[in-house]
Amino acid sequence: MNRALVQRQAPAHVRIMNARRNAKRTLTSIKHQNATAEMALLYRHIIIKAGRSVDKGIIDVEGYKTWERLKIDNVALVRYMSKGTHGLQNIREEIQAENERVAIPAEVRWLSNT
User: Fold this and answer.
1) Which of 19, 50, 109, 111 could form a disulfide with 29 if both were Cys (CB 3.0 to 4.6 A apart)?
2) Are 48 and 13 part of one and the same domain?
3) 58 and 89 housed in the same domain
4) What are phi and psi of 18, to 5 degrees?
5) Are 11 and 57 within one domain?
6) Which domain range does residue 101 map to?
7) From residue 77, how far is each of 92, 95, 107 by CA, in Å?
8) 12 & 53 share domain
9) Which residue has the higher pLDDT, 24 or 99?
10) How many domains does the chain have?
11) Which residues are CB-neighbours of 20 under 8 A, at least 6 positions away?
12) pLDDT: is 22 or 45 the higher one?
């Protein structure tokens, strides 16, 4: 993607960094520290075309504005880390089941174990 951006003479700060797939198989990445998501989305067609040359499953590029953060404090670790559970997948399912219209697109992760 970055090679395509360079070839199309996008500004040097419009670059894709740390692309990886999350648990839902969504390809996620961050942009360069000196650029905004809106700047990268100006080159959306270039990013999609370059990404599809490697992975035909790429269908769209979206900005981060559709994402929200949910932080939950004081979770009993034994409930989600004991033998025989699916851990963080269970907490995802419980949050979505108990909160109408909530979908968690990213991987659930622990912030701290204290």
Assistant:
1) 19
2) yes
3) no
4) 55, 50
5) yes
6) 68-114
7) 14, 16, 17
8) yes
9) 99
10) 2
11) 27, 28, 29
12) 45
Give tens-digit pLDDT for 45-57. Answer: 998 998 888 888 8
Q: Which amino acid is at 76?
A: A
Looking at 33, 51, 66, which one is the last position of a domain?
A: 66
- Cα 40 from chain centroid (whole Å): 15
pLDDT band at residue 68, thresholds of 50, 70 and 90? low
**Do 47 and 90 fall into the same domain?**
no
Neighbours of 17 (CB within 10 A): 11
In the block, which residue shows the tokens 């894709």?
A: 16
- Tokens linked to 18: 């740390």
What's the mean pLDDT in 62-80? 72
Flag whether pLDDT at 67 surpasses 90. no
Reply yes or no on whether the pLDDT at 114 is more than 60.
Answer: no
Return d(Cα 84, Cα 81) in angstroms, integer.
Answer: 9
- For the residues of 35-86, what is the DSSP string, one character each? S-HHHHHTTHHHHHHHHHTT-TT------GGG-------S--HHHHHSTTS-
